[in-house]
Amino acid sequence: MYIKLRHEVERVVSIYMKHDIISMHRQGSSNREISRMLQISRNTVARYVNEYKELMKEIDNETDETKIALLQLELTKKPVRKGVSVKRKFTGDVKRRFYELLEIDEERDKVLGINKQKVTGALLHRALIDEGYDIGVTTIQNELKLYRNKVKEAFIKQEYNPGDRAEYDFHEIKIIIKGKVIKKYQATITLPNSNYVFVRHYDNQRFESFTNSLVSFFEEIGGIPKTIVFDNMRNVVSRFLFNGKKDYNPELIKIANYYGFKIFTTNPYSGNEKGHVEQSGKNVRKELYSLKYKFDSLEEFKLYTKNQMIKFNKEINSEFNNEQLYLLSLPIKRYELGRLMKSIVNHQSFISIDSSFYSVPDIYVGKEVHSNVYLDHLNIFNDKYELIASHKKNTNKGEYQADITHYVRTFKKKPGALINSLALKQAPKVYQELFQNYFTTDIKKYVELISTKSELELKQILLELKQGAIISSILSDENNVEKASVNQLNQISNLFNQEGIIQWMK
Fold this sequence. Notes:
The chain is α/β, with parallel strands linked by helices and 506 residues long. The protein has helices at residues 2-26, 31-38, 42-61, 65-73, 92-112, 121-130, 137-148, 207-221, 250-259, 275-289, 298-314, 317-324, 408-413, 422-425, 429-439, 443-452, 455-466, 471-495; strands at 165-177, 180-191, 196-202, 227-230, 237-240, 246-248, 262-265, 294-295, 339-344, 350-353, 356-359, 368-373, 377-381, 387-392, 400-401.
């Protein structure tokens, strides 16, 4: 067991070591200083620092977004060591659920007052067992006893140097847009030194929203704080290990290495450790949306929030201007916000991203493709990293997006499949009008048309048809042009006494 534990620690340390080296380098420490403070060899420090410098140089000189994303992926590359996960009883999910049940208990006390309905250790244990957790009753009883006998702790007032620290948190707000109640997730980031508050609102707390808020924050304040404090949300902590250790999300480590900030997480259920952002987020929610919560559009809501936050931060402008002088400088290139994923194309020519489905050209059925997933859209590439599809992000799980042009190969073989296809139902209006009004009896000709014409060209054809043009004449005009070109080529051929006729069209 000792050997297994040691291997797990080594694997985690190697991840954090690289992150520590890069963040300390970005903050101006020499290789010698980093070596001394982290107790590792200067050669190791130099290797990671040089690797970081070379990668950043390549990123700065690269113009292709996909290649930039792949280079940024290298920032989280780590030595491969096979560690053995260690099953611990009161850690991770079981600990999280234990405290959630206690919160229910405390919430009841607030409503009903302290009474004899207090939850017991045995009751908590049964609830956890029923939910599938493997935990002993004695462990739960001891943890409950420690929790209830805990001496109220004193909180020490903190002061932070300019540029040293930022704090991050999500808060929920509810607003009304066009009469409909909408829930938004408010990403709040604060600078405790100057009291600057940054907010952005998102439809969810997925990683794309998380990264967008971080990068937008850096761009708004014009630099990067040396340390950012997070709670233990899934965007930050992938899993809890033994002895209080945590596995950070590799995607977050990649961002931290790129921008040079240090990741710091609070202890579980210790919101006071980032009390500045906790209180600031609540203040923004109360002051901005208590009286004004109805909006005619999303754009009005965004503009209102932007203007109100300017007023909110106006009183601390001098302190904020001073703190800006101590921030780390921004990289030349903006971080590529897309989340890289791999998918296998299913038999209906869809890939699944976050439980939603997106079409790709049907020649890729059964093959692996790569996706760059952004906040509001995604790009899909083949194994040569050539762009093959782009889609807007679905808002709900289980939704499909089908591009009709992705299925022309299949429709040529199975024309009858077009009529009731999701691809036709979701196609732009011009595709639907052309089919329903002019091609229902000649599907093959319709498929040939959409496979060779752009949407703009299709709109022109539809306009001509509406003005009285005959389908055959439009198509024959195109054929006549082609035939005329062939005849001209044949005449030229004859002038040079070449035999035969050029077979230009088959």
